[in-house]
Amino acid sequence: MTATIFDVANRAGVSISTVSRVLHNKDRVHPDTRARVWEAVEALQYQANAFASGLAMQRTHMLGFVVPQINDPFFLEIVRGVEEQASAAGYSLLIASQPQQVGEHRYLQLFQRSYVDAMVLVAIDVSLPQVEQILARGVPVVLVQQDAGVRVPTVLADNYAGARALAEHLVSVHGYRRIAYIAGTNVTPDNAQRLQALRDVLAEHGVALAPEAVVQGDYLRGSGIRAMRQLLQHRPWPEAVFAANDQMASDAILAIREQGLNVPHDIAVVGFDDVPLASYVVPALTTVHQPVYELGVQAGRIALGMIGDETAVNHPMRVTLPTTLVVRNSCGCSGA
After folding, report:
1. Which letter does DSSP use for residue 134 in this model?
2. DSSP conformational letter for 237
3. Alpha helices in 144-189 (DSSP H)
4. Domain 1-48 indexed as CATH 1.10.260.40
5. pLDDT 10s digits, 35-66
6. How many C-beta neighbours within 10 Å does residue 161 have?
7. Nearest-CA neighbor of 117 among 53, 49, 56?
8. What is the dihedral sign for C-alpha 61, 128, 151, 161?
9. In which band, very low, low, confident or very high, does the pLDDT at 125 lie, cut at 50, 70 and 90?
10. Exposure string over 195-206, b if 16+ CB within 10 A, otherwise e
């Protein structure tokens, strides 16, 4: 079986970006580290693509940036953070949208046609063979709100801790026990982490989350309405609904009102993200604030640092940013 850049990185005990820098003879690699990489290359008989290596020596001063939706305020804040870092370093952004679906990898066309110097991939399905294909061409990759489980720099928000704080607020402050969950997709790890946090908090209070209390959404407008209508078909109704993001939580409020019910007096609703919409809906959403802009700032810094020119800095392999509970009125709190 042909060795890959991941095999070389694992054998040498370094990141794949370090392997790429050694193969393309870039600076800022310690001599001992460089020697370990070349030993791994020889031992595994790894052969990098010569055409790709030639392209990697060119500089376009462009960062590739891929998000599921350009018009989503959540992703726009990440764009703003990355763009600030890129602009300060004399770089421009080449932005593309990629549907948040498993098996969609059209983002590869971005670097194949334009030869960007680095790529930031945000909350999309990540295929390791495709990531390796990018890295083999000397193009560094940074992941945001995604965890490929390999030696690729990753920037995340602490979804589990934020969801635990929100679930604990519902259970301990308000005494809710019948809590439903409107799920997002599992393309990224955030949905599973938020759901697990809710399950854990309920279990610690002696409550199991019923299978029928978990309904599927997709984070997008309209899916929360459909999911909430499904929940309202069964009695007893939930006392509270935890939606995996603010858009679906706002949708759920609309669906509850369709039935002549009141939020939060009949059913409480909470979300996640703290996008601007959360403070404008009525009642204002209790939610979890994600440092979305800072996710972009950190990703931009790491991507620029991996390019290996005058902007280079030491980059961490994993950055997890804290989240914060934001209490408003939709949970049943008054005067928040």
Report:
1. H
2. P
3. 159-168
4. yes
5. 888 888 888 877 665 444 444 556 788 888 88
6. 17
7. 56
8. positive
9. confident
10. bebbbebbeeee
Q: How far is CA 208 from CA 235, 239, 260, in A?
A: 17, 14, 29
How many other C-beta atoms are found inside a 10 Å radius of the C-beta of residue 89? 18
- CATH class, range 159-290: alpha beta
Residue predicted with more confidence, 3 or 309 = 3
CB neighbour list of residue 320: distance below 8 Å, 6 or more residues apart: 156, 157, 158
Kindly list the domain boundaries of the chain, sorted by start residue.
Answer: 1-48, 159-290
* pLDDT per residue as tens digits for the range 168-200: 999 999 999 999 999 998 888 899 999 999 999
Same topology, domains 1-48 and 159-290? Answer is: no
- d(Cα 91, Cα 100) in Å, to the nearest integer? 27
> In angstroms, rounded to a whole number, what is the distance separating the alpha carbons of residues 42 and 23?
12
Structure tokens, 54: 């030639």
Residue 52: CB atoms within 10 Å: 17
Dump the DSSP string for 45-106. Answer: T----HHHHHHHT----EEEEEES-TT-HHHHHHHHHHHHHHHHTT-EEEEEE--S-TT--T
pLDDT per residue as tens digits for the range 87-100 = 888 888 888 877 65
Helix axes 73-88, 292-307, angle to 10 degrees: 40
